[in-house]
């Protein structure tokens, strides 16, 4: 009898050490040759159900993530098409006819820059080009393929160029106008370049234009292999000497890290501007 109990104990210990993953049959003998058969079986049903549920949850989570992305993309498109500040046409005549209604920055062409495949070519490396002054000595468009290699390495010198419409004065202890660079100094180092300067209000220059210039500069500084196609066009109405605003376009090459197309009004709160010659008075 003692031998039988020891045998059963060892058998149970062995079964538990093996995880009870199968059915085992054990035979124990006694002095009377009595055969005792004990069966042990582990039930995996709950674990299998849990495993299946976990797989299903992962599939559902993946579908939800995909749907969230689609919803976000659709919401972005909807904002573009319903944005009251969106200007669908690239016509400079249409931009020139826009009147300021309280929003200093508006999207053009649903914020998509108008660059062709050739415009985005980098085979020539970084470059910059400034349009000639028109018949009234007004500044025209400035174009560039920007790269950190164009950024200035010397201290900026004072400006002395007076663009068309330059009738500067202080209003509330602040200068009304800045000599606004079409392509910011921090991007190309161009300073007293007649073809790159216009008369712009303090608000046009900083914060509005500077916000986009800083975005581009940050991207260029991140890697010497980063390029941005960039264009800034002053918008004049008819023969006026003071620009109504500027059209700014930026597109990073091989990515959308930089991607914008905006029109910025040349206005200043509390001031009425005479765009025909640049004179002004407090409103």
From TrEMBL:
InterPro entries: DNA/RNA_non-sp_Endonuclease_sf, Endonuclea_NS_2. SUPFAM superfamilies: PspA lactotransferrin-binding region. Pfam families: Endonuclea_NS_2. Residues 122-252 form the Type VII secretion system protein EssD-like domain. It comes from the Bacteria. Keywords: Coiled coil. Gene3D superfamilies: Extracellular Endonuclease, subunit A. Residues 50-77 form a coiled coil. This is Hydroxyacid dehydrogenase.
